[in-house]
Fold:
Amino acid sequence: MISSVIEERKVLRDKSVLLGVTGGVAAYKAVDLIRRLRDEGTSVIVIMTEAAKKFITPLSLEIASQNRVYSDLFSDPMAHITLSANADIMVVAPATANTIGKFARGIADNLLTTCLLSFIGKVVIAPSMNWRMYENPVFQENLKYLLSRGVIQVGPEKGGLACGEEGMGRMSDISEIIETIRSALSQKDLAKEKILVTAGPTREYLDPIRFISNRSSGRMGYAIARAALRRGAEVILISGPSVLSQPKGIKFVLVDTTVDMLNAVNRELPSSTVLIMSAAVSDFVPAEKAEEKIEKSEELLLGLHRTPDIISEIGKRINRPFIIGFAAETGRKIERARRKLKEKDMDMIIFNDITETGSGFDVDTNSVVIIDRKKEIRLPLMSKDSVADAILDRLVELRAK
Ligand SMILES: Cc1cc2nc3c(=O)[nH]c(=O)nc-3n(C[C@H](O)[C@H](O)[C@H](O)COP(=O)(O)O)c2cc1C
Structure:
């Protein structure tokens, strides 16, 4: 058994984003986008259009990016070539109807549109405008053309617009834009996989309103689903009740009880190549479920039965997918996880001691050991997004053999 420790991997670290900010009401949101990208270790160079300066000052973007802000095509004769040559990705957020139209028609009449033409990498655009502009067939035609040329669109969303109207046109949330950039920069090493992920807790009812459950938030499973999608997999996420928002681009199935989860897994499994069971499935179900709310009394003795063991059931099947399970334990019971891997016939198990600070339920970080038949990889405390990538890295390695 080989044991190793690996470093946290971040897709956006040391990448360089050339950000175009255009003249829309959402221009002020560029400050937050820049700040969040810099938090990820990304360097950001901003090009503003003249119209963008009516909405936000170059100084704000200079402070946020800690870099010079570019705008004029002629003040720096080589900028229209060098800025794009040095960027890993171009992002236009917000992207006005005007700039999108120019880009679609190959017009290069300012520094941003010229850089868009001289850039050979991936371009992400975040359209933002009034719904009537967005739905205009001329604009839609321009957008369709850019998408057909490989430009990546994020948003817009439906909702209240700055003009006071409701409709499609609000720029996507910053987290959504960042996720799209991350995805555009990710290797598509899971493109051939269809990955079924379970997440969150399940609930077992005593009566119509009371249940037993556990503290799982679903964060780890949702992070795995997002990472797998970024890396090109087709993803199905079966989730127990969770406050997290439904990841976009993923087939999402909401379930309640363990039996619901088992049924959903059985329905989605036949076409899946990998099953990742990160859900904290209830181990017990009340022996009886009352039809009506149980009356208050001095004492209530609860009889519990075992719930079906989803992984064991699937592990026994002949045509089973690659199976990754989770063992959330209190205390250093890694031996129990190693045993579970063999007994339940899994291909990989993720052990985590939920009593460690910053690890386990309801936090954004985790500290786990990835265990398979050949190797154990101990990860330091890191974000659940990075843990997800490390698990998928090992999956890719094992599937390549
Ligand atoms: C108050 C105001 C708000 C505007 N908001 C938007 C907007 O959100 N989206 C958009 O596409 N155009 C918007 N426009 C129109 C653009 O500013 C205009 O088309 C401009 O030429 C865009 O230039 P640029 O694409 O070079 O930045 C707005 C105009 C005004 C006066």
